[in-house]
Amino acid sequence: MTRRITLLAACVLVVMAAMLTWRGWWKGPGESSAPRADSRGAISAAPSRLARNLASPADGLPRPQLSPYAPGSNEHEAWVHEKADELVKLSWNEDSDSLKRILAELENPEQEIRKAALQAAANFGSRDAIPYLESLVASSTDAEEKIALIQTAEQLKMPAASEYFAQKKAAAAK
Known about the structure:
Blueprint: H1 2-23, H2 49-53, H3 74-90, H4 96-104, H5 111-124, H6 130-139, H7 143-157, H8 161-173
Helix pairs in contact: 3-5, 4-5, 5-7, 6-7
């Protein structure tokens, strides 16, 4: 069984490495070839998901926070990094309000914040996020983002190590 798990993990890593290499995820926000909206939701080649969802956030989620600074300014970049760090800190909490704040930022017009929110949702580890992540897949226009949303949802569907070993122990006891 451990051989299967090792093989599965190796396959996942190879696929992820190929995907990262092929799509260039290591590039910074300014180097991305995908169109992106600025903090105010303007100047985007593709229609922003934020514009559709700003009027009525899904599932009672708060609205994503927008930068009070002009896009491209040093203050704006500092604000984006600060917000991304805040999302990582929220992922360590175990309350539904933190999860809602994390999920709300998946609709942020800033790509860096959306990536941090997705990582925070994965770190949070709540299966309550799965339906929301799957709904975002349908509304996303960015192929890279769709893949990341699907992978995160699938990761959350997998049983935690403690659940897996509890199941193995229960099966062995029978």
